[in-house]
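User: Please fill in residues for this 423-position structure.
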């Protein structure tokens, strides 16, 4: 197993906090070959691979945020309010110290990310940092074991009965949901709403959206919306789909898509790069600048309209890379059109596709595709005479390929083409 939450009960001695006293334990979190809970006692200069904390608070935090942990999607830009409090284990500390470990859904797996961290007013500091992707079922097994152990530890104790019973009842309710209730809880979590504390009006809106939106885009659409904007997001999607349906889409892209080779790489950005190279080979790109056509066999029909959420960047048609995107300047529009092409060529499910700022594999793949399709790494390598690039040269390359200087610099750094000097 690649991720482990190891714990063992310890005798905490008398304490006015009976719950803390009864569930005090050593806790070690391990993943990706490292120990997330590696700490340094600054006073004694002693290192340890575990912390001592009451696990009741950890179990309560996990149960409270259960649906958000598994389904709420991280954003590459601005997060929803309170996002960290629902995903960062440090928020379960309740006066003790826990690592700054963020757990978020990542396209069927779980993304774990931890950073060096000095808790305020504490003698210890967490000294490791890193990230890892783990199987959801492995992490879920570990977290379930911890919750069940805490409930069992407190079972039958009169001095902790109210809090223990409440935790046990809530945990039972989480696990007793039927299929429709699970689907609703997932939808609510995507929207950033507690499925066990949803106003009736919001619950009705979630259900209506779930039934109205195309299955291929409703997860991402919910994750881009808020309670207040949900209806506007639904209307925008309907209008964009109608506009794309009315747009002529007789192009060669469906045949090109069929002819593309299967991708052997696993990481989403590597798939995006490989897909872009394969697409360029099919159309004879030769490393030169590609300008999108509005008509003809390689056309990408495109129109712009302001979305109701800054997280929504565009919508791609079901049967072609035709797209409706958020208004951008020329280089930004080209990037979104390239993302639309990458989304269409690389999609794995039928139906329209959504372009967003969300941190998912499909979005990462479309972003990598766009960067490589517009400014191929090999073409940049041929244009770099030295292993150092000046800001002025990045601006020149951006002008040549019709992209932003930021994209050029990102390509150079991601493909290790040269050292970028500071502006």
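Assistant: Residues filled in for all 423 positions:
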């Amino acid at each position: 197993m690649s991720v482990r939450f190891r714990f063992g009960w310890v005798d905490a001695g008398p304490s006015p906090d009976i719950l803390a006293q009864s569930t005090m334990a050593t806790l070690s979190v391990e993943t990706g070959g490292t120990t997330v809970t590696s700490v340094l006692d600054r006073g004694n200069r002693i290192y340890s691979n575990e912390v001592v904390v009451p696990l009741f608070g950890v179990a309560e935090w996990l149960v409270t945020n259960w649906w958000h942990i598994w389904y709420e999607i991280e954003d590459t830009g601005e997060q929803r309010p309170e996002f960290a409090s629902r995903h960062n284990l440090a928020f379960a500390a309740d006066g003790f110290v826990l690592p700054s470990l963020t757990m978020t859904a990542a396209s069927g797996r779980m993304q774990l990310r931890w950073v060096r961290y000095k808790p305020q007013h504490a003698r210890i500091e967490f000294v490791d940092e890193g990230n890892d992707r783990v199987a959801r079922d492995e992490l879920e097994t570990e977290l379930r074991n911890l919750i069940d152990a805490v409930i069992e530890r407190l079972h039958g104790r009169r001095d902790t009965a109210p809090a223990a019973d409440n935790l046990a009842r809530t945990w039972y309710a989480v696990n007793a949901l039927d299929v429709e209730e699970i689907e609703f809880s997932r939808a609510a979590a995507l929207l950033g709403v507690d499925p066990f504390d949803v106003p009736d009006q919001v619950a009705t809106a979630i259900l209506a959206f779930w039934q109205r939106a195309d299955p291929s885009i409703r997860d991402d659409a919910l994750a881009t919306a808020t309670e207040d904007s949900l209806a506007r997001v639904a209307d925008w999607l309907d209008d964009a789909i109608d506009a794309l349906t009315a747009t002529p889409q007789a192009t060669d892209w469906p045949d090109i898509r069929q002819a593309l080779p299967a991708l052997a790489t696993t990481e989403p950005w590597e798939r995006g790069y490989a897909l872009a190279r394969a697409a360029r080979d099919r159309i004879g790109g030769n490393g030169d600048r590609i300008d999108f056509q509005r008509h003809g066999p390689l056309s990408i029909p495109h129109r712009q309209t302001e979305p109701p959420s800054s997280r929504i960047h565009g919508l791609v048609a079901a049967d072609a890379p035709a797209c409706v995107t958020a208004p951008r300047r020329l280089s930004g529009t080209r990037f979104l059109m390239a993302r639309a092409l990458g989304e269409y060529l690389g999609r794995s499910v039928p139906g329209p596709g959504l372009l967003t700022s969300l941190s998912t594999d499909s979005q990462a793949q479309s972003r990598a595709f766009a960067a490589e399709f517009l400014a191929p790494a090999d073409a940049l390598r041929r244009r770099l005479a030295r292993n150092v690039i000046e800001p002025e040269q990045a601006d020149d390359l951006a002008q040549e390929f019709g992209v932003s200087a930021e994209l050029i610099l990102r390509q150079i750094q991601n493909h290790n083409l040269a050292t970028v000097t500071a502006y």
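For context: The two ends are 45 Å apart (CA to CA).
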